[in-house]
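Fold this sequence, please.
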Amino acid sequence: MDNAFEFIIKNNELTIESNYPYTGTNHTCNSEKESSHATKTTGYEDVPANSESALLKAMAKQRVSCCH
């Protein structure tokens, strides 16, 4: 997940599905729709395993991605 967050930050965000829906066709990207960003990611942090309080703190500040 850290690599995904690094990619998003490096590439100045991603757009959202409602701005640029997946159509399942092989065409070139629409750079105008692709650059319609809905959020701003400035960083990320790793939350210690089994720490509900750390997870709640992270959720109050930003989007959260989880893995097991």
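The chain has a mean pLDDT of 83. Residues 9 and 41 are 6 Å apart (CA to CA).
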